[in-house]
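S.,

Sequence below, as promised.
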Amino acid sequence: MKKALFATVAAFALATSAQAATIFVGSWDVYNDAAESWDSVPPNGPLAYTGQEAAALLFGGIASDYTISTISDQVSAINNSAWYDVIGFGGEIFAQDYSNKYLGQFYGPTSGFGSDNTGAASAFIRDNLEGAGAINFAFRNSTGTVPEPASWALLIIGFGLTGAAMRRRNSAARVTFS
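The prediction came back faster than expected:
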């Protein structure tokens, strides 16, 4: 009886496959009215975000849940890059997890910044890129165990056979004791 139940569960587990899915969840313009202004928190500036951190902030979850693209909302076009605004410079494309933050967390300093692309960078800030079309596309990576339709059929049949075997065994036991 236990063997039949174990065999049913084992067959279901083997027929169930782990499938990874990458789905488009949304996009944002790096220059964003919902973001803090670059000069709103002198002298260090507001928090800076990598492309993945900005996606997690906007769409929920954690940064590692996301893949970012600068091309389009098509999974086939993912380039693992994001648009960033670099303080004192403007727009630049870097890796989706690129992190150049003043003091490890800020988009600053808000004074005395350079005019090259070595300043602090953020993928979500209200600064230089208004109307520039620096759009980041976010894709959520999810892995889950998804039972195949045939797996459900196997599971139902297996439990049915296990139940029938238990009933037959119980009927035989009653006859013996009568």
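Residues 19-143 form one domain.

Coffee later?
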